[in-house]
Amino acid sequence: MSVDAPPLPDVLAGPLLRRLTPERLVMWLVASRPLELALMLHPEGQPPRRLTLSDERLQRIAVGEHAWLHLIDVALATPLPTGILIAYDLKVRDDTGERGIAEWAPHLLHEEASYPSFVLAERHHRLLHGSCRKPHHDGPDGLAHADTWLAGRYRQPQEWPAWLLLTGDQVYADDVAGPMLVAIHALIARLGLFDEALSGATVPDSQALYRDAATYYRREALLPDTESNSALRDRFFGGVRKPIFTTANAHNHLITFAEVIAMYLLAWSPVPWRLIETAPPPLDDEWQQRFQTERAIIGRFVEGLPACARLLAHLPTLMIFDDHDVTDDWNLTADWEQIAYGNPFSRRIIGNALLAYLLCQGWGNDPDRLAELTAHSATLMEQARQNAGWLPAEEQDALLQRLLRFQGWEYRIPGAPPLLVLDTRTRRWRSERHPTRPSGLMDWEALIELQEGMLDAPSAIIVSPAPMFGVKLIEAVQRLFALAGKPLLVDAENWMAHRGAASVMLNIFRHSRTPGNYVILSGDVHYSFAYDIELRHRQSGPRLWQITSSGIKNTFPITLLDWFDRLNRWLYAPRSPLNWFTKRRRLAIHPRDPDLAKAGERLWNGCGMGLVDFDNEGCPSNIRHLDARGFEVGFPPARDAKSQSVCRRADDGLA
């Protein structure tokens, strides 16, 4: 750090509200030093409470010389009330006294508020959900818009969502703008984030990586130039243009643990941006022009970060990974896994991103279940502190190997109805026909565990990062490419791509002891839609709703999606011969038309967040998309669905 650099602020990011209940509060933040904290609670109409955060209530893990993750985990002997505003404050204590959030993070306060607040919902009556937040996508940020929406209801606690669900691709570790990577490296230096040795690369360690001429826009050049690494290069750094759906840009793929940690800080907080400079690196004319274009977009992203941080400080938030949190097409096929995990360099890249996910996302979802992994991580980071800021390579690889083998990223939130968040990335059902064909998104054992978690519940909300029921034309195109042995070209990842996984999933829905009402919340695809679904030949249900919201800050190519949308409606119309031969014979699917869409459109393409209201039976009573351009899009019930608004109740014999 330069001797002329101003002192670092105590808090760099957060607090983020994580798993909150009347009996337990979990919060996450990042500080420049290990903090002594006190938590003040101000339930509306009740006396305030002061909670000193002892070591039993406050865990700290260093990830750099001036970067400490803090997890506040407080069990409450006297439960907090539900349905009212509860203001809170985090007092940072030092030799000069105490300072509250209004002093060290005034951007977290709504207008005329003295503190941030939260509401503990009695049941899961409303959920805000979304996925796919890419900083350099040229569009508005759905998180910032959701903060504006919440501000308009600040004094109406009954209007607040029970949870904010981030259902995948909270960061893009594999698709990084040049200015963002420059900011990442500047923040690494400013905070002294830990270094590491690199095995299998042409550079020996992280410092050499940051200095290398190929570190911006040409990271594929850092792989060993051998024939055995050609497939690895294609998968991680090829920047392969995908002719059907998206353009993959992996030239700036994050590699080190420090890079991914810095990305989280820069994606969730405006504070780190105030500590660094982002001057352009030496680039040729082509990349220099691209850098300047991206720099303007990133500048607009940074302007919205105070609002994003404010939303995360007010709504309890649950998260789950999808592929871009780690790398594009993560575990897509058995062949992909064999190549990626067989190389020490790619294994390190994947493992570093998963370690950062554990500490920045997973930890707050389920601290008890992940306690052993976070304790192992804390030991590794303490060894780095004792080793002049370098992660010991052998110990780092041992932890990453443990993470890659871990089964337990999924979790369940009790309530009415129960909320089940799925891991569709690490427990996959590999194709038995050919290793290049797409794997099922969950294997047989994981699906059976899902079923057991829903037994005898009258209804359930399932969070599946990828839609269980998607757009048939797009799935058909994906299937054609998969059959041709090219699933990587089109992201051929959907529940129907693997016959075994699809069959078991449908059987779960048909089981007599699983719920009569299912709501499936998804993201991933960069457009939004809603389906009402019934099982054919079943007089008593169950009822299903597929509700997809994507992306928070990402969209599908407009013209291409318009063609897919209209062709899908024409090719798979009820009387179409193609539909007769390809229809899901056990399902009756009724798409909902967005109320602001043009005639013939069923897919909504716009950055924003999904908002779903639930009735007392756990069925969706109102489905909306909070479009970040400043308006709401409704998804009213499908006209061709019979009595679709009527839910299956316990007395239907399905509870």
From TrEMBL:
SUPFAM superfamilies: Metallo-dependent phosphatases. InterPro entries: Metallo-depent_PP-like (IPR029052), PhoD-like_sf (IPR038607). PANTHER family: METALLOPHOSPHATASE BINDING DOMAIN PROTEIN (PTHR37031), PHOD-LIKE PHOSPHATASE METALLOPHOSPHATASE DOMAIN-CONTAINING PROTEIN (PTHR37031:SF2). This is Alkaline phosphatase family protein. It comes from Billgrantia zhangzhouensis.
